[in-house]
Specification:
about 450 residues, mainly alpha, Fumarase C, Chain B, domain 1, Ribonucleotide Reductase Protein R1, domain 1, 3 domains, two-stranded antiparallel ribbon, two-stranded antiparallel sheet, 19 helices
Length: about 450
């Protein structure tokens, strides 16, 4: 097949080199965006009288027909074409003849591919944001159910202070909300049209770049043509946001894996999101969470691959930049796949409150509250801290817990201890008295849930 750029060349491209150079097997994903962009370009060419308006109308009508045929399956991709742009132009020319050859006036594949990928990512990020909101909604439902379920909170993976399971879950809801904000920020900077930058220097034709941008729902145009075709910041920024998102999903996965183990047994995952063993019939493995944790490294790798590709490139376009698409496409597909399985896994997860409470009873996680008890009676906190540490050591020696230590043994350390200390250090009191904004009390968790519900409804 003759290449559209073949005029300069006396020999055909070597078959191996042709396959190596080709990108249609992955950039065909952008056929909708390529056709929409071409329709807007034709409309601009006609409006500016760069081509006859009737030719522009013919081109637009034919492009619409090509889009319909691709979506219905009537037309299939020709993988002998170099890329999606050449394929669309080839089909267009086959259908309407020389009029189709006018479409590429005042345009290069350099600005065309930059346009297509921005439009494609804009569409895909909308889907990812919606999927993230669905995950937050699933977390909210669970947080409502378990807003008063007491569990141990951890630092250094050591039992630290009592919290509620609802409070713990809401931490991830806020992480994911920030992920949405990062993706939205990246998308806003991405939503600038490069079309009209041409190969690198603009064009001699009287184009109306702003008209073309507006028809494609862009917020403005790239004001430097070199930057318009060279920039892939938006890919890097979006992949960075995806990497942070995957890091959050991986941390959540790690906790789910721990919680589902017999050592914790805080939760039970639904059978639909676990697998078994080929040799051990008792096993119920949290494979979906493990895969999400594992695929996080894949998204990190995509980001690093593109950063490495771009780091030494001079302006303007270089063929190396063809490598942007496989990396960003893989990131998108991986994120969407992970969210697709993670949301229902969370929605169907069941907590085991009695196991959480039993774990919270151990580890002296009410020790801080015991120190606060003395502090509120006038003892300096550091002095109270030291006394409580000594009492904890005594309990360890006696193999008992703070709640069960007799009052007379408490009073051997300070006369400030009274019978009311037992109420003060009960797990329920410890949680209920965490009244500071953002804390773990039921009322605070309810406030967090209300805030996140308003956010999902678009009221924040």
């Amino acid at each position: 097949m003759a290449k559209m750029w073949a005029g300069r060349f006396a020999k055909e491209l070597d078959k191996t080199a042709d396959d190596f150079n080709s990108s249609i097997h992955f950039d065909c994903k952008m056929f909708r965006q390529d056709i929409r962009g071409s329709m807007a370009h034709a409309a601009m060419l006609g409006a500016q009288k760069i081509i006859p308006p009737e030719d522009a109308d013919t081109i637009i009508e034919a492009l619409g027909s090509i889009l319909e045929d691709l979506e219905s399956g009537k037309l299939t991709f020709d993988y002998d074409c170099e890329d999606i742009h050449m394929f669309i132009e080839q089909v267009l020319t086959e259908r309407i003849g020389d009029v189709g050859k006018k479409l590429h006036t005042a345009r290069s594949r350099n600005d065309q591919v930059a346009l297509d990928i921005r439009m494609y990512l804009r569409d895909e990020t909308s889907d990812i944001i919606e999927a993230l909101k669905n995950l937050i909604a699933a977390i909210l439902d669970q947080a409502k159910t378990y807003k008063a379920t007491i569990m141990p909170g951890y630092t250094h993976l050591q039992r630290a202070q009592p919290i509620t399971f609802g409070h713990h879950l809401m931490a991830y809801a806020y992480m994911l909300r920030r992920d949405i904000a990062r993706i939205e920020d990246a998308r806003a900077r991405m939503n600038i049209s490069p079309i009209g930058s041409c190969a690198l220097a603009g064009t001699t034709y009287p184009t109306d770049r702003r008209m073309e941008a507006a028809k494609l729902d862009f917020d403005g145009i790239c004001l430097n043509s070199l930057d318009g075709v060279s920039d892939r910041d938006f890919c890097v920024e979006l992949m960075s946001a995806f990497s942070i998102l995957m890091m959050h999903l991986s941390r959540f996965s790690e906790e789910i894996i721990l919680w589902a183990s017999w050592e914790f047994k805080f939760i039970e995952l639904d059978d639909s999101y676990t697998t078994g063993s080929s040799i051990m019939p008792q096993k119920k493995n949290p494979d979906m969470a493990e895969l999400v944790r594992g695929k996080t490294g894949r998204v990190y790798g995509d980001l690093m691959a593109l950063l490495t590709t771009l780091k030494g490139l001079p302006l303007a376009y270089n063929k190396d930049m063809q490598e942007d698409k496989e990396a960003i496409f893989d990131s998108i597909e991986t994120v969407k796949m992970c969210l697709g399985v993670f949301t229902p896994m969370i929605a169907t997860m069941k907590a085991i409150p009695e196991n959480m409470y039993r774990a919270a009873q151990g580890g002296f996680i009410n020790a801080t509250d015991l120190a606060d008890y003395l502090t509120k009676k006038g003892m300096p906190f550091r002095a109270a801290y030291k006394i409580v540490g000594q009492i904890v050591a005594l309990c360890i020696e006696k193999r008992t817990v703070l709640d069960a230590l007799p009052l007379d043994e408490y009073r051997a350390y300070s006369e400030l201890f009274e019978e009311d200390l037992y109420n003060e250090i009960s797990l329920e009191t410890c949680v209920a008295k965490r009244i500071s904004e953002g804390g773990t009390s039921v009322e605070s968790v309810e406030t967090q849930i209300a805030d996140m519900t308003a956010y999902l409804k678009g009221n924040i």
